[in-house]
Structure formats: structure tokens, C-alpha cells
């Protein structure tokens, strides 16, 4: 995209208050066309509230928001024509069969059957649900329902797809199938805006993301950039047993660049985890388990907030 192109979504000091409670507290971000942009944060961070404001179903308290240059509160129908929405909870019509869910949804957009029939078949193929075309929705697995919800959101060929926690509650295999479909959409040029509290999902899918906590943006960047800026290359995870994890910290001082004692383990942030482990052992300390891994967005979140992403 040329640098001069305006962002497809632009939020400036966007806020949503419920009484005295600031669910979204002055967040600003721009999303260029074709980007896969994430809001990563724990439960209650304000991610869904932000998505609802983008989708035009929740009014902001203050700030500015434009979608394709339009204010969703003033131009609801025009904005919605550009958007596909995948809400946190699947809201499929359980009574209808799989293909009919797509056809009926398409009718809400006033799309003619001559367009909808071939489009529904194309989307079912994309969602790997062709064989389930005539099945009742309540007979589908969780992953299949999620893919059908995504297929349905694409019926009007939206330029922007809003995905609120697309894989929460799915098993690892179903998540991978879904990620693959989302990759394909991204390749086809659809702008993806997704919320997640899974760091691996954010790392897999997002070109760029904002880390949100308590309605505020704590950091912004690509996953690799965030990890580089806020963590070390490797992390050594040690478990000493529940009593010892917090008391052992004093004996680990000076190893690695930073120490993070948690109730269930101690994290040592270091450029070289194996070297850090050698130092631990050379001090005569004997962890029950040890693991060297690469830093992740979970470590970034812990560094920025002092808390874990998953409650
Ligand atoms: N209608 C409402 N009235 C009062 N408080 C609300 C309302 N809707 C949301 N909240 C509060 O706003 C905060 C942000 O909620 P939101 O659903 O946006 O969080 P989230 O980051 O999407 O988390 P989750 O993954 O749990 O949905 C929460 O503390 C929630 O309880």
C-alpha cells in the first residue's frame, strides 16, 4: 500500500465509559488496508468493546473513529457493508441447515439468490464444509461452527473482517485449521482485525498488534518487535516446588538479565538460557524441572503489566 493511502480503520483517543468505569480509555491506532491487526489482552481488557464500536453496534463516549473514512455512528449501513463480523459467541441459526444459514444471512444484505447460491457453495468449500452443506448446525463440531460463522461473515465480500476471539474454546487441531483459513483470507487482501488472549494466535496471525490492559494500549508493534523491545531472546523456566519458588529468588540473583518469581515457577530472562542454567547448577541449586524456550508475547505482557495474559 502506498504510504499516502489513508488507513482503513483509524481510532484516535477512543473511549467507552460505563458510568465511572472506563472499559476503553483513550486508545489510538491506525490500520492500513490488507494488514492483519490484533488486540491482545486478558479478559476484561476492553477488546470486545473496541470491536463493538468499530462494528457500529456500541456508541463511543469520546474520541474519533473512522472505518474507510466513515464514522460508524453516522454511516452505520455504509460501514457495515464493508465489514464482516465474527462475534465472540457463534450466533448461527441452529434450526437451519448449514448452507441455508449462508443464504438467509445473505438475504439480510438484500443480495439476490442468483449471487447467493454460487457464493454459498464457494464459501462452504473455503470453510471445508461442503460435505456438511445439508447438515443441521447443531450437529457440527465447535471448529466447524466457527468456520461456518466465518463463511457467513464473508457473504457480502467484506474488505475488513472483525474477529472477536476466533479460536477460544477450540482444540489445537481445530485452531490450526482455522488459522490456515484466516491466512488465506489475509493473502486474498482482506484486512483482519482480531482480538485474542492467546499469544500464539497473535504471533501466528498478526502483522502488528496492540497490547491492551484495563482499556489502555501498553505497547504496539509486530510480534517480533514487541518481543525484541520488551524481553530477552530466551527464557529459562525453573520449578523448585511450590514452597521454594518464591524463596529461591534471592539465590538466583545476578543470573541472566531479569528474574521473575511466579507462584508456580521462576523465570530467568537471558540471552542464552542454557548458559543461565549452567550458572544455576553451579550454585548448587537443584530445580525439579528446567526448560529453555524463546521469549513470547506472554513474556511481553508479564513485563508490561506484572500479570499473566490468561487468568
Ligand atoms: N454493558 C456493560 N456495562 C458495564 N460494564 C461493561 C459492559 N460491557 C462490558 N463491560 C465491562 O468492560 C470491561 C471490558 O469488557 P470487554 O468485553 O470489552 O473485555 P474483553 O477484553 O473483550 O474481554 P473478554 O475476553 O472477557 O470479552 C469489562 O470489565 C466488562 O465487565
TrEMBL record:
Cellular component GO terms held in the UniProt record: plasma membrane
Its subcellular locations are: Cell membrane
Alphabetically, which GO biological process terms does the record hold?
Answer: response to antibiotic
Regions that span the bilayer: none
Gene3D superfamilies hit by this protein:
P-loop containing nucleotide triphosphate hydrolases (3.40.50.300)
What's the protein's topology in the membrane? Peripheral membrane protein
Q: Which UniProt keywords apply?
A: Antibiotic resistance, ATP-binding, Cell membrane, Membrane, Nucleotide-binding, Translocase, Transport
One of the record's GO molecular function terms: ATP hydrolysis activity
Which domain of life does the protein's organism represent? Bacteria
The protein's matches in PROSITE patterns, at most eight in alphabetical order, are given as: ABC_TRANSPORTER_1, ABC_TRANSPORTER_2
ABC transporter domain: residues covered:
9-239
**Pfam families per record:** ABC_tran
Q: Which family does it belong to?
A: Belongs to the ABC transporter superfamily.
Name assigned to this protein: ABC transporter ATP-binding protein
Species name: Arthrobacter echini
